[in-house]
Amino acid sequence: MPYWQENEIRFDVSSSYLATVTGESVLERVEPVEDTKANSGEAGCLIMTNLRLLWFSNKTAKLNLTIGYNTLVTITSQSAKNKKLNSTDALYLLAKVGNGRFEFLFTPLLENKTNYSVILNEIHKSYVASKPFRELRLRHHIIHANQLKVMPLEHICNRVEGVWNLANNQGNLGCFIITNVRVVWFATLNEYFNISLPYLQIAQFSLRDSKFGKVLVIESTENNGGRYLLGFRIDPASRLKQILQEIQSLHLTQIRNPELGVSWNSISTRQTDALGPVQDEKEDEGVRCFTNYLQTDYMDSVSCGHPPEFDRTIGLAMEKLPSGVNRNTLWQIIF
Question: What distance in Å separates the CA atoms of residue 208 and residue 260, rounded to the nearest whole number?
């Protein structure tokens, strides 16, 4: 269940793209705000959700932005001129998508002592810390002293010792932890040998016969690293069925009402789902040229070396694998 809202920047979309999706919630709403870099003098509304930041014009429905938190590089304040207030603190953002960098400057049009860069930084910090709610983690620092590092808004539902992870035609004994947002397995002899799989990234569960006997099979959704097929042996068989029923129930709950793990509280927070303007002008997505937001001093650069490739899906850079081997085969169950 990937969220494009957190990973993309989109310009001038229809109001349906501005509406909250399942699991998304409004954390802060500010208006009137000007998109100073590209729409100077155009009063609009700035909204911070748990996945992205949005701005839309109050007068012209086709003028809007949706900026995913995963694209943000810099969040700070910058002095900006205001015809009514002479000067004010504006919210400055530097974002990156692929090889393109974009600058945004949002200026409040009414006097307000609130530092919105501080608010957005706090929300973004919580967003980054909550990525395991939405992303698969492989061989990550999630276990300490044989205990799972529990995230805010996460709680452990069950812990099952003596669970065999079956991969590469062999088994590794470890511990299986079930929480309200993910399933985690780690090896008893090496806690760094682990996997954290959020329910939002699980396609299906099943019980299958294998050379190791009856096993629980968990299949992940398609992501940047491919599709994972994980097998676990839990004895006795009656216990295996109970574990399957428990994770199926938790999975269904998380899919229907996702907890994305981003928390932030403010007295001024206004809870609302009405993100976009009421009027919806039918315009093609991306009508307005986004070059106004390109960083003015940005230049493409090519590295002469060969740096490790960072894989966002597992949260680390991997060493080069032997020829004919990929990450999928390392975790693939063999029947």
Answer: 31
Q: Is residue 100 helix, strand or coil?
A: strand
Quick one: DSSP state of residue 227?
-
Inter-residue contact 212 to 164 (CB < 8 Å): yes
Could you give the angle at the alpha carbon of 246 between the alpha carbons of 245 and 251, nearest 5°? 100
pLDDT tens per residue across span 263-285: 887 654 444 444 545 444 444 44
On whether the CB atoms of residues 295 and 74 are closer than 8 A, the answer is: no
pLDDT at 5: 95
Structure tokens at 146: 């044989």
Per-position b or e across 229-263, b if 16+ CB within 10 A of its CB: bbbbbbeeeeebeebbeebeebbeebeeebbbbbb
Amino acid (1-letter code) at residue 113: K
Q: How is 34-71 classified by DSSP, letter by letter?
A: EETTTEEEEEEEEEEESSEEEEEESS-TT-EEEEEGGG
pLDDT for 115: 87
CA 105 – CA 77 distance, rounded (Å): 9
| Token pair 């205990």: residue | 147
Return the exposure string of 178-195: e unless at least 16 CB atoms fall within 10 Å of the residue's CB, then b.
Answer: bbebbbbbbeeeebebbb
**221, burial (CB in 10 Å: exposed 0-12, middle 13-18, buried 19+):** middle
Q: How far apart are CA 59 and CA 219, in angstroms?
A: 47
Q: What is the pLDDT of residues 16-65, one digit of tens each?
A: 999 999 999 999 999 999 999 988 888 999 999 999 999 999 998 889 99
Q: With beta carbons less than 8 A apart as the criterion, state whether 176 and 182 touch.
A: no
Amino acid in the structure at residue 102: F
What is d(CA 45, CA 106) in angstroms, rounded to the nearest whole number? Answer: 10
136-178 pLDDT tens trace: 999 999 999 999 999 999 999 999 999 999 877 788 999 999 9
DSSP letter (8 states) at residue 109: S
Whole-angstrom distance, CA of residue 23 vs CA of residue 7:
16
pLDDT tens string 90-119: 999 999 998 899 999 999 988 777 789 999
